[in-house]
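Summary of Year 1 activities. Much of the first year was spent building the evaluation harness for sequence design. The harness presents a backbone, in tokenized form, and records the residue chosen at every position. We chose the following record to illustrate the format because it has been used consistently in internal testing since the harness was completed.
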């Protein structure tokens, strides 16, 4: 799996996890969803993505979006 797909898989999983935590644990977990959304927005403008850096260090094959 390429770096791009891993980042998208991770982001989607975190959004779903945060929604489930908000529904079943505490409404305050909505702030986790907000954090994820803000991180995705800043990543689209700056190209800086902490998840991409971590996956690259773990040996993920490069993709096109995060080169």
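For this record, the design step produced the sequence shown next.
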């Amino acid at each position: 799996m390429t770096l791009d797909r891993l980042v998208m898989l991770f982001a989607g999983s975190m959004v779903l996890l945060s929604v489930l935590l908000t529904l079943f644990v505490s409404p305050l977990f909505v702030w986790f969803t907000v954090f994820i959304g803000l991180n995705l927005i800043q990543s689209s403008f700056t190209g800086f993505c902490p998840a991409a850096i971590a996956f690259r260090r773990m040996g993920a094959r490069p993709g096109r979006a995060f080169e």
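DSSP finds three helices and no strands in the chain. Quantitative recovery figures across the full test set are reported in Table 2.
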